[in-house]
Design goal:
The chain contains three helices and four strands, in the order E-H-E-E-H-H-E. It is α+β, with helices and mostly antiparallel strands.
């Protein structure tokens, strides 16, 4: 199996930022409980604060599409984020390549 990284890019109006982040706080409970999910993070753009990117690492593409999306944790996840579905600009899956490493700042987060 190959680890898969899913990126979901959103454009969220400023007046919806708080509701959006709350929705993902709720949805994160489903991700944390799903055995197919390795980790996840939601990031907000500094230069364009209405842009957000959700990164989810899955154990495999199949585990995400067949396991999570058809499993017990997906309904609650989707119910939490459904109001923002039309704000998605991109939703794609990627395979991590061979260029991976850490910089000198690692551990200073």
């Amino acid at each position: 199996m190959t680890t898969t990284v899913e990126y979901i890019r959103y454009r969220i109006a400023p007046e919806q930022h708080q509701a959006f982040e709350q929705a993902y706080t709720t949805a994160a409970e489903s991700l944390a409980a799903a055995p197919q999910c390795i980790d996840y993070e939601l990031s907000q753009c500094h230069e364009e604060p209405d842009r957000f990117i959700l990164r989810i690492r899955w154990t495999s593409l199949e585990d995400h599409l067949e396991g999570f999306r058809k499993g017990e944790h997906f309904p609650a996840f989707f119910a939490a984020v459904r109001p923002f579905f039309n704000s998605i600009e991109e939703m794609q899956h990627y395979t991590v390549g061979s260029v991976v490493g850490s910089g000198k700042g690692a551990g200073r987060e």
